[in-house]
Amino acid sequence: MARILLIGIDFYDYANRISAAFERLGHSVDFHAIEDRGFAAKSAKKLAPDTYERRRAAYHNRLIEQTSNIDYDVVLFIQVHQIRHEALEKLRAAQPNAHFVLYNWDSLTTHDFRPWMRHFDHVATFDPDDARSIGIAYLPLFAIPRFFEIDHARAPQQDLYFVGAIGSMNRFDALARLHDFCESSGLTTNFHLVCSPVVRLQLWRAGKSLPGVTGDSIDFEGIINMLEASRATFDFANHKQSGYTMRLIENMCAGRKIITENARILDEPFYRSDRFLLIDGHDFSAVPEFLATPITSDFDAHAFHIDRWAQQLITPDGTSERANP
Predict the structure, then answer these.
(1) How far apart (Å, rounded) are the C-alpha atoms in residues 220 and 213?
(2) Domains of the chain (ranges plus CATH)?
(3) What's the predicted TM-score (pTM) here?
(4) According to the 3-state scheme, what is the secondary structure of 186-225?
(5) pLDDT cut 90: percent of the chain above it
């Protein structure tokens, strides 16, 4: 059994889900957020960045001091660019016997983590192109147990659903085109599109709107409710990446059809034509037939269970058959 210090972003409660996975495997976990993501902190980060940086640095120093009396076997970071190099050096000195692991669920084009790699014994990423280009391990994202336990007997109430943040106009425009196509084809949609006040203002000024645009987040059970009530989801990444989104993995494991723009899917051993539809640009012409085709294929969804992901991440050599690009 390993004692793990987990440091990362508490995004959609994934930190607790990851901790629970390690605990099911017999390990103990202490989680600490890498930074405050509350509204006040986000505002300070934009309006007073120097003050925010000083406060964040002080927080990291307190975290290191608070954990220095515990001997950890593994120090695991989910993302790392928020912490200074001096703080990481201090943490390594405080945990001389720990195995330091970094996992990145953003691509290099979003957050360039290469300057931080020297502080770690093992580095892995969800993005296969990044893994190949810089010589680190490839480990796809995961699905938590709840996605393997959805109600398959529930009758679908709509054809397509999408939950996500509108971080770019490219994503909004893609969803708008999909929505227009579905309306003209007699297909139903259900969107929950979280927009910041700035993005909502941009949409308003551009005269753009879509059902489901909101400033409110959705809780986990709300996402499950939308998934169970839908036949398929649309997968469109907010940022340029070759790695699969959490959305794709979760819906795949839940047995939902997936419409995606990621061409890599065609070469995957889990690809099935009745489960995945690759679209080229914004050509949705194949969507109606795809949705009308029942799923009859099978595959090993549990290869993407979070427990399997957790085990592969902290194995001594950090590799596995599935962890090769």
Answers:
(1) 18
(2) 3-142+305-323 (3.40.50.2300), 146-303 (3.40.50.2000)
(3) 0.86
(4) CCCEEEEEECCHHHHHHHHHHCCCCCCEECCCCCHHHHHH
(5) 64
